[in-house]
Amino acid sequence: MNVGLLYAVCAALLFGGYLVLYKRFFGAYPTTAYMTGAYATALCWYLPLAALSWPDDAPVAEVVSAPDAVGAAGATALLTGVAIVVSLLAVNRGDVTYVTPLNKLVPLFVLPIEVLALGQYLGPWQVGGVVVATAGIYVANYRPGALLAPFRRALSYTPAQLALAGAALFGVADVAKRVLLQELALPVPFVVWLTLLGVLVVAAPLGRSRLDALPRRAYPGVAGMGLLIACVNHVNALAFQAIPASVASPIVNSQAVVAVVVGGVVLDEGAFGKRLVASVLAVVGVVLVALG
User: Domain ranges in the chain?
Assistant: First the structure.
């Protein structure tokens, strides 16, 4: 198997597990307070990994002295921070097995950006992918009643609104990340570290005043989550660097299935069967969109 595919599969497993761990052990704490602690420690954990993996043909001084590239990477990092805050708020307020399939419809938002900004052609497989993923949203929100009631619920239920908003923000950030890692060829450690910093910059002003809501007994766990965050972001960036983004994105976003399966077993959330079907439809739709 291509090493890039292995990176993408590992990222999906790690991301899916991360969401379940967050909901299980830290969902009761203020989201921004948790993120402030987790991403501050992730920055520290990532420093030695960044030093060890920094490419020899990309001097640090040369990379940081390119204002356009640094500015684009910084803006992408801040946007990613907002997307993560919104997405974790969705997980915090709703069930993991409900929220995750909606939050991982990222390529559905990437596609119109590429069509409008880059002139990408919308093929029949991609149209089919949109239909399948939309069916996933319908199934996730289905309750007996009017035909359009599931869509109305998705647009009016706060966790669903947050999950879809997070997916849209991630869609924009993913397009930018692809440009950073492929067109601009920025080093993976630079993009990852700046992304972690951007998330912290977004979360810290909101979470600093609520840090006292995190009990001392939670500190080791938050630090452990920081290590997981550092590792999964590095693996994710390696996937986007090694294989086409159109291949990496649907694989990484298959974390929806991982989160639904593990969340259904560990958290014992209701409507497991329906949400598993919804997550599978969402991932299949994403695959068709990305590979079409």
Answer: 3-291
